[in-house]
Write the structure tokens for this entry.
Amino acid sequence: MTEQEQLRTPEGFTAFYRRHAPPLTAFFLRRTGDAEVTADLVAETFAAALTSVKGFDPDRGPAVAWLYGIARNQLGSAQRRGRVEDRARRRLGMEPLQLTDAAIERVEALAAAEGTARALNELMGDLPPEQRAAVEARVVHELDYAEIATASDASETVIRQRVSRGLSRLRSGLKGGAL
Amino acid sequence: VKRTDDFLADLETQLGAAAAGRLRRRRRPRVAAVLRPALVAVVAAAAVGAFVLADGIGTDPERAADPPPPALPGGALLLPPAVPLDDCAEVVRSDDQSPPQELIDELEILRRPQGAQDTMPAMTLTVPVTELSLSHVRRWKREVPVTLVPSAGVVPRACTEPDARPSASEGPGVCVIVELDRPRTACWTLAQIRAGKAVAALDAPQADDTDFVVALMPDGVREVTFQTPQERDSYTVEETVVVAGLKGARSGDRITVTTSTETGACSDLIVERGTVPEDVMRAVPAFTRGTPQEPPADVVEFLRRSGAGHAWLNDARWILPPRDEGVGAWVVPVRDTRSGDCRHPLLQRPENVGGAGACLVAVREDEALGAMCLGADDLPGGAIMPIGSRIVFGFPPKGVMHARTTIDGVPATYQVTDGVLIVEIPEGGKAEPFEWHSASEPRIAVLNGTSISGLGASVANRIGAATGVEPARIGDYLEQTRSETLVLAASGHRSTAEAIRRELRVNTVGAIDGGVRSLAPDADVVVIVGADLAP
């Protein structure tokens, strides 16, 4: 099933939402600094995406680019008008969501986590290839040092060194303001 | 308003439900014919300044039966020859004289921009026309090059009757020059082209005994079938011209021409690429605002089935009314359209002389619900029509900004958006006939005096729904610590303010003072929202 076809099914659209809602929340929070406005923008962006899903043209780019195009329009409109549009949500009959303090904290924490993840991703890309592979195998895939050593055709000691040095670089990168 | 502890999870639930309803919804069958004879009466009423929708709303209007399919061009004829240009007597000719517009309107190839290839073939001084404009010459370059020379006067007899007076023009038409073995020409009048009788034998048989015929087909013909005693074959018409290879198609032979259009009774939609006529641009404000964009395929198909004639699809505009209930409209500049079905000139001549105009297609979720079209002459008078029992849409008379009705005894006012009215009656509601209302509506400003985000907008929605007047301004009050809501009115607008007071359950209506006036200089009614309206 193509990305376009997936988006046109309720399940596909929900999966699309799950994948992109957290980073989109971080995107809006970085630009507005306000969790409630961010929540409104996220909701309106996905509602607008749902109402115009038939207009998504994969020849013009991937769905994520289309989504962020809608997001930028919503943000620009909100900045011009001083309020977040709610046309798409009303059109879909969606009830306005008002954030409790707990929800605001969640949004802010999520955005922070997304920011950290983004920074980590960039720092990972800067690691030497053998260190990056070792860190991914140990931290992401949770393999034993022995397994990694066998797969990499290197000694266990060398792998430990690579993981240690890689993690050390990531730590200092984050402390150095990569966020 | 729903309070949430986990925003992303609750939003997922809402979106999932909306997606399930929206993406799995079964499509209704489309309405094929939408314009009813009753509309003619409505247009006439609107033209004298006011209208009443005679049927009222709330009952399904009966739809008139589709008109009987008009006769398509074609028929039997004896093939005339395309004669060598050398045989034509020289015609006294005026140069740089444009052909009549009706000729250009009829033939697609004449409307495309002139390219470098669109020149007269060499040594063709004797083309039998009385007036020639080189800038209107077009060359059809497929398997056989064919040059079209449109003119206000064609003189076919100059090539076939040595004794004929070469100045004897038969009126507007087209001469073609076909470069098969040697340049040959055939000329037809506009009437012959419209009748599907613009066919000639080239009399240049090929090795396999195939003969060639050349034909011009008017706009709207998608396919033409030629039948000779020996062979029958069909050809797709591309850019007006057809060159067909057939056995038994020499001059003097009998040939039968049968044409067809894509949609049967109605002709094909013809996409215009040029400039939208000024009178249409001026008549519908939507055309001078917003972004031109092409409607989705479903809407184009609907226009096609409605016989909209020629359409400037690239210059369409999408209109969403202020009370967005999911129904919007595409407004599309068109040509050769009138109230009625199958308005294409090919099929409803001579009634169809309306020239340029605009079609309005009501749409819900990309699904076309109905369409109406008005010529530029009728647009200033306006017209309105219902679709079923819940949708009313149309073009208002020039300068009119609102339409009023009563729904189940409650007055309702609807705002015109960019020169278009589109209204969805609430489910189960019964609306009385609409009336245009040109007096200006009170201007309402809503100022949020609290720190609750979105409260001003939600109160504005309530006011709009209760009064039928959308607040013109939503903003923040000077301070965000107000506990009680205030409704303030300028002189002469007390009744509107009272209606708002009742809706919001506020105790009294006050007068707009200087401080508030500075925040909303042109407002007739100002609502300062307090925390008492918080959800």
User: Anything to note?
Assistant: DSSP finds nine helices and one strand in chain A. The interface with chain B takes residues 8-10, 13-14, 17-18, 21-22, 25, 36-37, 39-40, 42-43, 46-47, 50-51, 53-55, 82-84, 86-87, 90-100, 102-103, 106-107, 110 of chain A (CB under 8 Å). The two ends of chain A are 37 Å apart (CA to CA). The CA atoms of residues 36 and 100 of chain A lie 9 Å apart.
